[in-house]
Task: structure prediction
Amino acid sequence: MKSETRTGLVVWLALLGLLGLTLASSYVPMDGFNAPVNIGIAAAKAALVGVFFMRLRYSGATVRLALLTAALMVAVMMGLSFADILTRGRAAAPPRPDASAGYGSSLLPGGCVSCRSTRWC
Amino acid sequence: MSAASQDAALESAAERPVGELGMWVFLATEVLFFGVLFCGYVVMRWYYPQGFAAASRHTDVVIGSANTAVLLTSSLTMALAVQSLQQGAARRTVWLLAATLLLGAAFLGLKLYEYRDDYLRHLVPWLDFVFPGRHAGGARLFFYMYFVMTGAHALHLTVGLGVVTVMIIGVARGAFSRERAAPVEVAALYWHLIDVVWIFLYPILYLVART
Result:
């Protein structure tokens, strides 16, 4: 077997292993760390696909720069969105979506009335 | 090497970096397109954490996980197809591309079956959405995002199936070969990106609050 083919198969097995890991980890209560673990594993899988299958290990600086630009722009978008959300008062939170009447129809000042959540639910 | 294939090799050597860079720039815009959806998802989940958690438990984790494995495997066959073509094994390339096509179609088939199931369980927000419990509002938003994100992904995959079909015909007819592998290499990049998008969709749609 050619070494490139072997590399492909090893990467594929690693990807399936990470899939099993992310699935199994989701059934283990980790006190708020489930989501970061899942996203971390997804990032590792994406990196494997990018570096080996998309041949980023062979690609030049211009290609990497295009990718870096996209990643940076997404980071800016997320960053600015959360800079807004996290510094707003609760009064500015969006209306609670109403399942029966279509959301936006029942603006409830003071948060969720049904479950007394400190955040909207 | 004949003069014609020498010309083709020179042409391919010239177009490869340009085509590759062009595809990566296109993929960068695709990353931004899906980035917007991800950003919207994160903001909504921030405001409605319980609704998103409750809704995610209503997605089909078996089909979702199986589909992830199917798509990861299709990325392997695609990567192997590119290698085969670069080594001049056209026949093997056609078979590997056909396997990629089949796996992609299998993903789409499973996805459509899942959509049908979602519809029968009244989980489509703009039709007859019914959700038990007090978190129906947040759950409704979750399913909006679920259908928009998986729908956009499925649309990309459908385009990918067309592209792979064209590649199979091209390689079988000898239009794409070791001397002119760039079109297949570039098509493969697009296919892998569809896989990467799903890699992120899978945990945020199927694996929220399974404990």
User: Anything to note?
Assistant: The domain at 42-206 of chain B is CATH 1.20.120.80 (Four Helix Bundle (Hemerythrin (Met), subunit A)).
